Amino acid sequence: MLHTNLNLRSSSSAQRGAALAVVVHVVLLLAVLGQTVYLASRHRVRVDLTSEQLWSSSESTRTLLEKLDQRLVVEAYFSPQEKLPVTFRESRKWAESFLDELVQLGKGKVVLQRFDPNADDSVKKRAERVGVKPLQLTNSSTTSLSVDVHWQGLRLVYGGGKQKVLSQFLPSSSFVAEAMLTPAVKELVTVQRRKFGYMEWPVTAVGQQTPGGIGWNVLRSHEGISKRYEFQNLKDEDGALLPDDVDTLFLFRPKDLTDRQKYVLDQFVVRGGTLVAFVDAAEYAIGPQRTFSKIPLQLDATGSKQPFLGQLLHYGIEWKPKLVADMAQRAMSPRDPLQAPYEYFAAPQLDQFGRQRMVPIAYPYFFHPLPVDWKTSASELAKDASGKVDETAAASFRERFVAGMPSDEFLFQSFKNAGRGPGFYWPTWVGLREKAGGKPDLPPDVEGRVHLWSSPAALVEDPPQMVNPFGGARDAIQRNTEYAKFATKLRERMGNEPRLQVPLMVEVKGKFSSVFAGQDRPKRPSEIKEEEAKKAEAAVVDDPNTPEDESKQDGPPAPAKDDKKGKAADKPAVQEPPMRTTGDRPGRIVVVGDADFLRDDIVRGDLAQGGGPVSGSMAAPFFAQMLDWLAEDRDLVALQSRSATDRTLRFVADTGATAADARATEKALRDKTSMLRWSNVLLPTGLLTVLGFVVLIVRRAQKRSFLASLR
Question: What is the pTM of this model?
Answer without folding.
Answer: 0.74
